[in-house]
Amino acid sequence: MGHITGIHHAALKCCGTEEFERTVGFYRDVLGLTVKRTWGKGTNAGAMLDTGSGLMEIFANGERRLPQGAIRHLAFAVDDVDAVVTAVRKAGYSIIVEPKDIEIASRPPYPARIAFCVGPVGEQIELFQEK
């Protein structure tokens, strides 16, 4: 029997080429992900960006905005929450949870620094820095 070895990618569907370009730009230019591959043109365009431990797949062919589904948010491991928040804010995106230190009540305790922002197509993104 095969085993799951990790998360391969998360996918976003943008409504048209303008939103697609803005979304790819956000993940590439603001969050610093590298474009790994692209395909198609216009509303058939797509891209995969490297998160370091998986991929972010973005499509241009969404027909309508869907309500938030079962996935609550995407969490990216970062090395400096405050620096990423500064870049996100400078690019004009909303910070919905300001940077803060937390400790997850687990065994052993799990200290971290987190923040949340909203991406170009309404996705919630957690910025997670292990301490």
Radius of gyration: 16 Å
Q: How big a fraction of the residues is strand? A: 35-45%
- Overall 3D shape: globular
Average pLDDT reading:
89
Task: Find the structural class using helix and strand composition.
Answer: alpha/beta
Q: Determine the N-to-C terminus distance.
A: 36 Å
**Low-pLDDT regions:** none
> Going across the major beta sheet, what is the strand order?
1-4-3-2
Order of helices and strands: EHEEEEHEEE
Q: Give the helix tally.
A: 2
Q: What fraction, in percent, of the residue positions are helical?
A: 10-25%
- Overall strand count: 8
The major beta sheet can be summarized as:
4 strands, mixed
Commentary on this structure:
By secondary structure, the chain is α/β, with parallel strands linked by helices. Helix content is 18%, strand content 39%. It is built from 2 helices and 8 strands. The chain has helices spanning 17-30, 81-90, and strands spanning 9-13, 34-39, 46-50, 55-59, 74-77, 95-104, 110-118, 124-130. The strands form 2 sheets. A 4-stranded mixed β-sheet has the order 1-4-3-2, with helices on one face. It is globular and about 50 Å long. The model has no long low-confidence stretch (mean pLDDT 89).
List its salient traits.
single chain, about 130 residues, alpha/beta, four-stranded mixed sheet, 2 helices, 8 strands
Provide a short characterization of the protein structure:
This protein is an alpha/beta fold and 131 residues long.
Topology (SSEs and partners):
Blueprint: E1 9-13, H1 17-30, E2 34-39, E3 46-50, E4 55-59, E5 74-77, H2 81-90, E6 95-104, E7 110-118, E8 124-130
